[in-house]
Structure to design on (105 residues):
């Protein structure tokens, strides 16, 4: 009987479990670069610059570390990871439809 490496066993178990649906995913489903451009071009989302400006009205000059445009419920939301002047990392959400900061994210 052949002995499979542990990694092969884990991969085999993962394949048997089937695909992960978006609802089951631990993280939000985010758009790729082409999908992001299309969403902005079709006016389904404000530009990233508008989202960042919205955040800067509430937080003192944060530096953008990461930006993602993701599905949330029926709409889209920018999930922004920022580095504040005091060195703290902030994660904020901006409604992509209107550029408003989402409270309590």
């Amino acid at each position: 009987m052949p002995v499979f490496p542990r990694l092969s066993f884990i991969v085999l178990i993962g394949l048997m479990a089937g695909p992960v649906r978006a609802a089951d995913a631990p993280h939000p489903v985010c758009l790729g670069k082409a999908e992001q451009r299309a969403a902005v071009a079709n006016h389904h989302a404000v530009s990233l610059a508008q989202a960042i400006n919205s955040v800067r009205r509430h937080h003192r000059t944060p530096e953008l570390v990461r930006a993602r445009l993701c599905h949330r419920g029926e709409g889209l939301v920018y999930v922004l990871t920022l580095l504040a002047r005091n060195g703290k990392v902030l994660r904020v959400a901006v409604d992509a439809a209107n550029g408003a900061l989402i409270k309590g994210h």
